[in-house]
Amino acid sequence: RRVVVLISGSGTNLQALIDAQQHDELGGEIVAVISNQPDAYGLQRAREAGIDAVALPHREYESREAFDGALIKVIERHEPDLVVLAGFMRILTPRFVQRFLGRMLNIHPSLLPAYQGLHTHARALADGAVEHGCSVHFVTEELDGGPVAIQAAVAIAPDETEDSLKAKVQAREHLIFPIAVRWFLEGRLRLEGDAATMDGTPL
Ligand code: GRF
């Protein structure tokens, strides 16, 4: 089973997926890593793991549609069973989402449906929330709104800072993302209509 990972940044989630693959715990192979940011450190992580690393700078395209069209081409060249968004900081066009619907997962740093969008840690702290976390979800046309597959929660300490909370949540991201990918590649986790299902049962 073949996985293509899209990134924009440091790629710590990508690293967790690479590590899982190297321990035979991913259920498939990462065949390419694509970044819209040419200097993303995650591309270096991919190269070090012997994975095809592709920079596709979105700035070189005149529109979102043109960029997504190019991205679709690069992805499809690698014939993936699953497309994984691991800190890919671009809003995708409906055409792109439809193309990979039901076979694209994203990790988001909140307990969805809470805190969709950016700056989730700061917003949770500002609200005085007692817990926060992360979610892996199927990507649909609603930004950060697709059906959730797995979540992990962390308690917010009284002296929590944005950085400490981010670190706590990221440690959980690195745990749950490889699990969700494995479930998908094993055929256990699926998108059926509007629902994520696990072994045929809606989550
Ligand atoms: C993660 O916190 C993820 O939840 C968010 O972007 C961040 C990517 O971090 N969408 P990294 O590149 O995997 O280190």
TrEMBL record:
<comment type="pathway">
    <text>Purine metabolism; IMP biosynthesis via de novo pathway; N(2)-formyl-N(1)-(5-phospho-D-ribosyl)glycinamide from N(1)-(5-phospho-D-ribosyl)glycinamide (10-formyl THF route): step 1/1.</text>
</comment>
<keyword id="KW-0808">Transferase</keyword>
<feature type="binding site">
    <location>
        <position position="106"/>
    </location>
    <ligand>
        <name>(6R)-10-formyltetrahydrofolate</name>
    </ligand>
</feature>
<feature type="binding site">
    <location>
        <position position="64"/>
    </location>
    <ligand>
        <name>(6R)-10-formyltetrahydrofolate</name>
    </ligand>
</feature>
<comment type="function">
    <text>Catalyzes the transfer of a formyl group from 10-formyltetrahydrofolate to 5-phospho-ribosyl-glycinamide (GAR), producing 5-phospho-ribosyl-N-formylglycinamide (FGAR) and tetrahydrofolate.</text>
</comment>
<feature type="domain" description="Formyl transferase N-terminal">
    <location>
        <begin position="2"/>
        <end position="180"/>
    </location>
</feature>
<keyword id="KW-0658">Purine biosynthesis</keyword>
<feature type="site" description="Raises pKa of active site His">
    <location>
        <position position="144"/>
    </location>
</feature>
<dbReference type="GO" id="GO:0004644">
    <property type="term" value="F:phosphoribosylglycinamide formyltransferase activity"/>
</dbReference>
<comment type="similarity">
    <text>Belongs to the GART family.</text>
</comment>
<dbReference type="GO" id="GO:0005829">
    <property type="term" value="C:cytosol"/>
</dbReference>
<feature type="binding site">
    <location>
        <begin position="89"/>
        <end position="92"/>
    </location>
    <ligand>
        <name>(6R)-10-formyltetrahydrofolate</name>
    </ligand>
</feature>
<feature type="active site" description="Proton donor">
    <location>
        <position position="108"/>
    </location>
</feature>
<feature type="binding site">
    <location>
        <begin position="11"/>
        <end position="13"/>
    </location>
    <ligand>
        <name>N(1)-(5-phospho-beta-D-ribosyl)glycinamide</name>
    </ligand>
</feature>
<dbReference type="GO" id="GO:0006189">
    <property type="term" value="P:'de novo' IMP biosynthetic process"/>
</dbReference>
<protein>
    <recommendedName>
        <fullName>Phosphoribosylglycinamide formyltransferase</fullName>
        <ecNumber>2.1.2.2</ecNumber>
    </recommendedName>
</protein>
